[in-house]
Specification:
Elements (H helix, E strand, L loop, with lengths): L3 H17 L3 H4 L3 H29 L12 H15 L1 E2 L5 E2 L1 H12 L4 H13 L2 H8 L3 H16 L2 H13 L2 H5 L8 H5 L2 H30 L3 H35 L1
Antiparallel strand pairs: 1-2
Length: about 260
């Protein structure tokens, strides 16, 4: 790795710490809290897959006739991550994407999946994020988070996509999820078994393997190009700020629900 990673790590460290230490996690004490959190988080799970596929489109050939695209090492890195995210296994060993696994976790917990399903259905119909958000009545914090992700997707700049994917997602997720759902009651834990499996799976895969692949991919795409490092630092900082706003909104709704209880 080159020294630019150290510079980036120092610049994003305060934001990263805010996310990892966010008060939200300590407020998720029961299924009611978890259901609210999942309503927000499922959109991040979905747009993560879109960011991932944008990298695969830009770094490999996904059309016919097939032609070799880019560097074979980079192709290997992104294709391996895609396999793990798009075709992993559920708690019973059945092939499933992480987004579909998350929806299963929501259903088991009794969380409302109508909003995310309405959003996807409207996206299929209108082919427009704006209209899909409007028709599904999606909260502003979710909309802003997803819109930032798609600004990176639509930039068609692989190095930006890789950086946000790596430092806004893969390298962050294991530390972010490490402390959740360990204090649920036994009865409630049974209804959060798939969610806990989802968390443990991400900690295992992202922390031990995918984050290393993503860092290597970003390094290959940027090299020593200082203009790229300046641009990607800005994009990563923005992505982390969007995550904090998303978590703030979920936290505030959980707090409000407890005050009403």
């Amino acid at each position: 790795m080159n020294e630019n990673f150290d510079t980036l790590a120092n610049k994003i460290a305060p934001l990263r710490a805010q996310i990892i230490q966010h008060a939200l996690y300590q407020e998720i004490n029961n299924l009611c809290d978890l259901k609210i959190f999942m309503k927000y988080h499922v959109f991040a799970v979905w747009d993560f897959m879109s960011l991932l596929k944008s990298l695969q489109i830009n770094l490999t050939c996904v059309e016919t006739p097939w032609l070799p695209v880019g560097d074979a090492n980079t192709r290997f890195l992104i294709n391996e991550i895609v396999v793990g995210e798009e075709s992993d296994v559920d708690q019973n060993g059945k092939r499933i994407s992480h987004f579909e696994l998350y929806l299963s976790a929501m259903k088991q917990a009794g969380a409302n999946t109508q909003q995310i399903n309405d959003f996807i259905d409207n996206l299929k119909i209108y082919k427009s994020l704006t209209l899909a958000f409007e028709h599904a009545n999606v909260p502003d914090a979710i909309r802003l988070f997803v819109e930032h992700t798609f600004a990176i997707v639509n930039s068609n700049e692989s190095y930006l996509q890789a950086a946000v994917f790596t430092f806004g997602r893969e390298d962050l997720i294991p530390a972010m999820f490490l402390s959740m759902v360990n204090n649920f009651s036994v009865e409630e834990s049974q209804k959060a078994e798939i969610f806990k499996y989802y968390l443990e799976r991400h900690i295992e895969i992202d922390g031990d393997h995918h984050s290393h692949l993503a860092i290597a991919m970003t390094d290959q795409l940027c090299g020593d190009d200082q203009n790229k490092w300046i641009a990607l630092t800005k994009a990563v900082i923005e992505s982390l700020e969007m995550r904090i706003q998303l978590w703030d909104a979920a936290y505030q709704e959980i707090i409000l629900s407890k005050q009403k209880a």
